[in-house]
Amino acid sequence: MSSGAYSRRGFTSAELLLVLALSAIIIGGAVMSLGTISRAQPRSATFVDVPLGSATMQNFYGFSASTIRVAVAPQYGVMAQAEKLREQFLNDVASSTAVFCLARGNGVLNPFHRVYIPFSMATDGWIDSPEAFVKFLRALDPVNNAFTYPFRNPTNEVPTALPPNCSIYLLSFSKFSTHIKVQAIYDVDVIKFASNNPSSLSGFFASVRRYSDNPDATVDDPSNAGTAEAVYAGGYDIFYPPSYDGTPLTTTLWNKDNFAPLFVTFERDVRAALRENAYIDRFKLAREMPFYFVWWPDPGAANLGPVPN
C-alpha cells in the first residue's frame, strides 16, 4: 500500500552547475566540429563570376548584365534549389498534354519563349513527335535554327558529338481554340570555359531554368495571345571546376569532362519492325507510349569528370 508521500527534493546548485558544464562542453564540441568540416571544404562556399556575355544573360534571365556570380560545386544550398525545381518539373509534366525534348548545339540559345503558340489544325496538322514540333516552330519563325539536331537520340550517330544543351517544352490545355498553351519551358545549358592561362576561368557553367506565364500580364483575348512572352520563373546555376586541379592546368588534362546527353528518346517497340540502324533501333522499347530519360547537372558533384564503374 502506497503511503501517498512524494519527495519535494529538487536539484542542488552543484548538480545544476554540472549539467550546465556538460552542456557547454557538448555544444562547444559540436561548434568546433562544424568549423573543422567547413574549413576542410572551402569550395562549398566559393563563388565565381562567369562572363556569359550580355546577349546570353538577356536570353537566360531577362536582364542586361554581362557576368553572373554563381557557386562552385559542390554546393549543397544549390542542391535544395535543384530539388525544388525537380518537384516543379514533375508537377508541370503531370498537368501537361505533351512533352517535347529538343537538343541544342554548343553556343545556341533558345529564342522561342512563348506562353501561347498560334495553331490551326487545318494548316498545321498533327503535332505528335519532336520532329513535327520543330517543323511547326520553324514555320512560325523561319529564322529559328536553334533546334537542328535529329529528334531521335541526340547522339546523331557520332558518340563524340553530343549536344550540350536542350530545351524541354511542356504543352497544356488552352482556353483559346486558335492557340496552344505552353505550360512551361525548361532550358538546360552546359557551357565550357577552357583556358591554359591559370588566371583565366576554366570549367563548366551549368544552368537549368524554367520559363512560364508572366504574373504581371493577363492574356484574355486571342488577338494578343501569340505575343505573350514566357518569363524566367526560377532555376539553379552552378559552376564545375575541372576534374584535374593540378598545376599547370591544361585543357588536355580534363578534355573528357562533360555532361551529355541531357536526354534520350525512347520510341514505341512496334516501330522495331522498321529496321534502321543500331543507334536508333536500340531505343525502340516503349510498350505503350514513347518517353524520355532526362538528366540534370547535380550541384552535389565536385566536377563533370568521368565516373569509374
The helicity comes to 10-25%
Distance between the termini: 71 Å
Q: How many beta-strand elements?
A: 11
Shape: globular
Uncertain regions: pLDDT < 50 for 5+ in a row? none
Can you count the helices? Answer: 6
Give the SSE string: HEHEHEEHHEEEEEHEE
Structural class of the secondary elements?
alpha+beta
Radius of gyration: 27 Å
Q: Main sheet, how many strands, which sense, barrel? A: 6 strands, antiparallel
Residue-averaged pLDDT: 83
Strand content: 15-25%
List the helices and strands and how they pair.
Elements: H1 13-40, E1 47-50, H2 54-61, E2 68-71, H3 76-94, E3 98-104, E4 116-118, H4 121-124, H5 130-140, E5 165-172, E6 179-193, E7 203-212, E8 231-240, E9 263-268, H6 278-281, E10 284-286, E11 291-294
Parallel strand pairs: 9-10
Antiparallel strand pairs: 1-2, 3-5, 4-6, 5-6, 6-7, 7-8, 9-11
Word description of this protein:
The structure is a single chain. With 309 residues, the chain is α+β, with helices and mostly antiparallel strands. It has a domain at 75-260. The protein has 6 helices and 11 strands. The strands form 3 sheets. Strands 3, 4, 5, 6, 7 and 8 form a 6-stranded antiparallel beta sheet that branches. A 3-stranded mixed beta sheet has the order 10-9-11, with no helix packed on it. It has a two-stranded antiparallel ribbon with strand order 1-2.
